[in-house]
Amino acid sequence: xxTPTHTENTRRKAPPHPQATPLLPPATLAGLIVACLAALLxxxxxxxxxxxxxxxxxxxxxxxxxxxxxxxxxxxxxxxETGQRGYLLTGDERYLEPYNGARARYPSEIDKxxxxxxxxRDRLDRVEQIGQIAAAKFAELEExxxxxxAGKLEEATSIIRSDRGKVLMDRFRAMAADFERDExxxxxxxxxxxxxxxxxxSVITWGGTALLLFLIVAAGAxxxxxxxxxxxxxxxxxxxxLASFRIQGAQGVEKLGEEVLSFLAEYLGAKVGAVYVHDxxxxxxxxxxxxxxxxxxxxxxRRGESxxxxxxxxxxxxxxxxxxxxxxxxxxxxxxGRPRELLIAPAVVDGEVHGxxxxxxxRAVDDADRELLDRVAETLGMAIRTSxxxxxxxxxxxxxxxxxxxxxxxxxxxxxxNEELEEQGNALRESQARLEMQHAEMEQVNVQLEERxxxxxxxxxxxIQAQKDLADNARMLERTNRYKSEFLANMSHELRTPLNxxxxxxxxxxDNAQGNxxxxxxxxxxxxxxxNNELLTxxxxxxxxxxIEAGQIEINPEDVEIAELVHSMRRTFDxxxxxxxxxxxxxxxxxxxxxxxxxxxxxxxxxxxLLSNAFKFTPRGDVTLQVSLRDGGRIAFAVRDSGIGIAPRxxxxxxxxxxxxxxxxxRQYGGTGLGLSISRELASRLGGxxxxxxAPGMGSxxxxxxxxxxxxxxxxxxxxxxxxxxxxSVPATADIxxxxxxxxxxxxxxxxKPAASGPHIDDDRSSRRHPDRMILVIEDDERFARVLYDxxxxxxxxxxxxxRANEGLELARRLKPSGILLDVNLPDDSGLALLERIKRxxxxxxxxVHMLSVEDHSQAALGLGAVGYxxxxxxxxxxxxxxxxxxxxxxxxxxxxxxxxxxxHLRENIALLLRGDQVEITAVGRVADALxxxxxxxxxxxxxxxxLPDASGYDLLEKLSKDPRHARLPVxxxxxxxxxxxxxxxxxxxxxxxxxxxxxxxxxxxxxxxLFLHRVESALPPEQQTMLRRVRQRDDAFEGRTILLAEDDVxxxxxxxxxxxxxxxxxxxxxxxxxxxxxAGRGDIDLVxxxxxxPVKDGLEATREIRATPALAxxxxxxxxxKAMADDRRQCLxxxxxxxxAKPIDIERLVSLCRVWLxx
Amino acid sequence: xxxxRPRRSDFDIELRLLLEAVYQRxxxxxxxxSTASLRRRIEQAMAHYGAGTVSQLQDRVMRExxxxxxxxxxxxxxxxxxxxxxxxxxxxxxxxxxxLATYPYVKVWVAGCSTGEEAWxxxxxxxxxxxxxxxxxxxxxxxxxxxxxxQAGIYRLDRVAxxxxxxxxxxxxxxxxxxxxxxYGNAIFDKSLKSQIVFSDHSLATDNVFxxxxxxxxxxxxxxxxxxxxxxxIGLFHDALAPRGFLGIGSKETLRFSPHAAAFEExxxxxxxxxxx
Lengths: 1160, 277
Fold this sequence. Notes:
The complex is a heterodimer.
Chain A: H1 4-11, H2 26-90, H3 96-117, H4 121-149, H5 153-161, H6 164-248, H7 253-268, E1 272-278, E2 283-290, E3 300-302, H8 306-314, E4 318-320, E5 330-332, E6 335-337, E7 341-349, E8 352-361, H9 367-511, H10 519-549, E9 558-561, H11 562-580, E10 583-588, E11 595-598, H12 600-616, E12 622-630, E13 634-641, H13 663-669, H14 675-685, E14 689-694, E15 700-707, H15 721-727, H16 737-740, H17 745-748, E16 774-778, H18 782-794, E17 798-802, H19 805-815, E18 819-823, H20 831-840, E19 849-853, H21 858-864, E20 868-871, H22 876-892, E21 895-900, H23 904-914, E22 919-924, H24 927-936, E23 941-944, H25 953-962, E24 971-975, H26 981-988, E25 993-996, H27 1001-1015, H28 1022-1030, E26 1042-1046, H29 1050-1060, E27 1066-1070, H30 1073-1081, E28 1087-1091, H31 1099-1108, E29 1117-1121, H32 1126-1135, E30 1139-1142, H33 1147-1159
Parallel strand pairs in A: 10-12, 16-17, 16-18, 18-19, 19-20, 21-22, 21-23, 23-24, 24-25, 26-27, 26-28, 28-29, 29-30
Antiparallel strand pairs in A: 1-2, 1-8, 2-3, 4-7, 5-6, 7-8, 9-11, 12-13, 13-15, 14-15
Helix pairs in contact in A: 1-6, 2-3, 2-4, 2-6, 3-4, 4-5, 4-6, 6-7, 6-9, 7-9, 9-10, 10-14, 11-12, 12-14, 19-20, 30-31
Chain B: H1 8-26, H2 35-49, H3 54-63, H4 65-75, H5 86-100, E1 106-111, H6 117-128, E2 135-141, H7 144-152, E3 154-156, H8 157-169, E4 180-183, E5 186-189, H9 191-194, E6 197-201, E7 213-218, H10 227-240, E8 241-249, E9 264-268, E10 273-276
């Protein structure tokens, strides 16, 4: 616990700051200052008095000296007089010595006297007077001496006798004595002054000493008082700091109280004590006691109650000297007593009472005790407050801690939700981007939709127009058709009338009723009759057909009994069968209903037609009519024969009006060929159809398929000429003789005149302007021919016109036109027939033909080899286009392809694959053969394998590339080998197309060949073509130079090699930047053409690397870039390129660039 | 954006000026990008950079090249995924690749590759069809940052699940995981695929054809272009393509209204794969 040392330490704990405090307490300082001032004053006064005394002494001394000097002067003058008198008497010079000595001494003595008298005019005047007299005396002396020397003793003696000298001397003595007397008086005066001064001095000395003594005593008293005060304060402060120290460690007010009390007991010698702490309101609770008796039960006091309460209320310490009996008794093991004095101090801090300390002592209390208690109480108050605050702070801290935890938790949550938000943000951003894309897509779609709408609207307008045209056409057609039908009806009638009479007459003749005709004649008559009959049937058929086509037939449905129908057929055809020695079977399936509802007459007509055909085309065997039920409420009448059958491609043809399967058929079997057409039309009117199954030699089955009940709508009999016509268009597979029997009415009466020349317009046949550009127009409408003529001229063609087919053919053979425009309707032959003849004639078959017609036979025409088909009326543009197509095809003419392939199968397959009507294929298996073929004739395209028996494909290609004639031959390499990059690069110089054999390769081969054949020339832009032609001469700048082409684009490799090599340069190829650097490193390159965008290492980097090699620093490098901006170009130059050229490469510019940089 | 929105026409004028400025200053030509899309993108950029008007944005773009590099993200839409529209890749695999196999050496151009997913997808298809070793894929874009991402071949793992599903739907023969290594929430794709891909900066708006290619795949790029630029881009593709080469475009795009439409024929119409005539 607290030791004295500790107390000392504690006391010294807070010394006042040395600079902040005054050196001494103020009173002491004042005393000291006064003492110093007194001492200073005494010293000053002493000094002043001693100073004046010194001055007085100095004056005394001067006075004595003056007296001395005066006496010396008198003596000197007397010496001088003595000397004079001796000399005068003796004349001996020796007596002059005192005189001479006095004379020498005199000036200094008078001067000394003058100096001593200086400062006092009166004395100085007297000195001067003395001097004058002395001087006069000396003058008298000198005069006498001089006279004596001159021997004038008398005179000298006279002077002396005159008493002049004696007077002077007396005056002098008197004056000197006077002066001396005055000086002595002054001396006495000054001595008296000195004495008074000495007395003053001693007074000052004693007074000063007394004052100093007083001051010292006063200072001592003050220091003593200060010391005692300090000691007391130190004791209080020591107690205070000890109390603070003791309190410091105490936790809680109880412990605080105990510590304070135990301290007070120790330090103050308190025998008893208690500490009260302010609780709430006015209540003070006792928290600690020291040596308290049990009876001291005042655990709680109120403010104002008892002494303690009063002290708290007054906030003032209280001293009680007469302690009441029983108040705060002192308890000890052996008894109890009461304290002699009580001290009660409230613990007040900042005006607030935090507690009360009460102690009882057995001794008298002094101020120090009170003050200490006050201080300790205050310290206690602060401690209580601090403790309270600490408690509160602790609580707050805990609260804060709790809140901090809470905050931490919230922070965690926040972070989590933040992360979620961030993720959502990311997702949002992504979805925003996605949305943006969708947006853009939507916009795109919108734009497209809009355009499509516009397009559709245009199409709609066009459609409406076309519809209108169509309707017009339909109306026109209908009218024409009606005219035709009416005409035919009339015609038939007109025909039938004479025919009938002819029939009747022939019959009459054949009957030979009069018997006047011989057998031969009868047979003629019968022939006439049967021919007429056939003619009649034909006419009826035509009439029927036209009626049907015109929709003029009536359909009258009724119940038709199947059995009766079949029976009727048997009745009709049994005789025919018997006649032709054929069997005729009929069969009706059991599930067939007894009757159907249809037009009996028309059904019979169809069946009869089918059966008669069957019998007609069946030389032997049988004919069967089979009736069966079909799905969907339909009934089928199948007519099967075992006849010649019909080839598949003719099966459609036989239903066409006026046609038969084979041109020869009609000749062999007779008949009009209209029957099937009529039958089909009728079947269709009855809501049914006719199907055919047949194969040549296997017989045929025609099946009439009908509904069981004919619906009204089906037989509405709408005019159907319009739709029927296109539906029956000639199929593409039409046999070539079909057009030979052309549908034109004109064909019925063909003009057989050879090369009949029709009228033609004035054309260019005698005045050609374009020797190799001429169009032949074969057209009977002269006005239209004139239009074509003008148009051909416009397009830079000569034009020759023919109005007849035969004339046209003849002109074509003779003039070899560039193309033919051919009308389908010609007076002497069908245009289609002429087309066919042209295409069969080797001399003219290559001439492209474009058809013009009012009717659509386009498929037939195109099948025959026409390049196009235009329907009249033709728009001018369409005509121009037609001529354009002629020109286009003309440019192509026949292409020749050479295939070099050792595998025989593959060779054939390739030839088959590439076969076409404008292509001639030559296939060989060896390189030698290929070279021989190429030598013999020009080819348009070469397809070659690489592995060939006698040499490799490379050899072939090398040889070809050296031969200027073949330098431009397009080559397609068709190989099964996997190629290395080197091989590929090597091949690239010769071939633009390399095809690896595989599943899809034939398709590509076909594509490539087709491309070459059609685009050989046009593939290159025109200037490049001219360039190619122009640069074929070798060039000095390029001769023997090596150019490194660092380029990955095969087209450029191909094109540039083909330009640069013929100029004499050797072209080395690098496919990427790395290769380029390596290749350039070998040092034999004269120029580098460096593409920028290359794999592995780009051109910029490669350029930099090349430049980094000192040996290559001067190597010209031309950058080739696809980038167009100024920045990109600068990049090239910055990387070290000498120049650059932009893609697509302008060959001419490149060649001049190379020339510039190679020249260096 | 509390202030009154400027009139549309003013905005457009400023937008045009901005594009012109960007062109002059940085030589990036966005002048023929679809205006509607640009408007939205620039509004976003303005919000992001806190610019009140397009002119303010322009002022900063002109003076801060770094900001422009950053803003490129706004000019172009970086959205892509692997095997997007699996049927497209299936068609490539089944219909186009067998034709490509007849070439000794094949080049593919993925134009506007953005962050590279499409280029990687094509490389995977080619690898599986045994064609990658003799194929070179050019993947081009105008955005250097996107190209860097593409070149890194690193994609967030959570996206890869979607990639895998699409990969399988596109006729993948393996598992997509065969081609990547996953760690730290990312997946890095096989570097050996990259050895056949050349990533390069190329602008469809200003630059020219750089090589002959057999297949061009340019999907969902044309939608951001106006008609004129679309025509230019398709013209470039046409020039770049070898005879009978293939062109694949996005499902919402079409060649129908392009001046070059006649030069292409539909090859796999539903997938917008065209073939040069």
